[in-house]
Write a structure and sequence with these properties.
Cytochrome Bc1 Complex, Chain D, domain 2; 6 helices
């Protein structure tokens, strides 16, 4: 009987965790970043489909660190790369980079 109760308790906890994770991924979709074709093609493979980051990949774009970065810092990181992030200056137009920066900033204002 105790095993049955533990299994049910674990299932409920897992369900609650899944619901919490789903709620944390929603802002990027709501703000359009995850729907941006430029993001989907160039950024999602490292930063995740919902911009929440990926283990051993790019960090979350909805974080304190991203929120603290200025628009110029974000543009510079996208254009020139940083750490393991590649340069995108030759792959994206200035307008595409500006749009990504605006969407990242909007994502972090909530």
């Amino acid at each position: 009987m105790k095993t049955y109760q533990m299994t049910i308790g674990l299932g409920v906890a897992l369900l609650a965790l899944t619901a919490a994770l789903a709620q944390t991924q929603a802002p990027a979709v709501a703000d359009g970043l995850a729907e941006n074709p430029v993001y989907k093609k160039n950024c999602a493979k490292c930063h995740g489909k919902t911009a929440t980051g990926r283990h051993f990949g790019g960090p979350s774009l909805s974080s304190e660190k991203a929120a603290a970065a200025s628009a110029d810092d974000l543009k510079n990181m996208i254009a020139n790369g940083k750490g393991r992030m590649p340069k995108f200056a030759s792959k994206l137009t200035a307008e595409e980079i500006d749009a990504l920066v605006q969407q990242i900033e909007k994502l972090n204002k909530k």
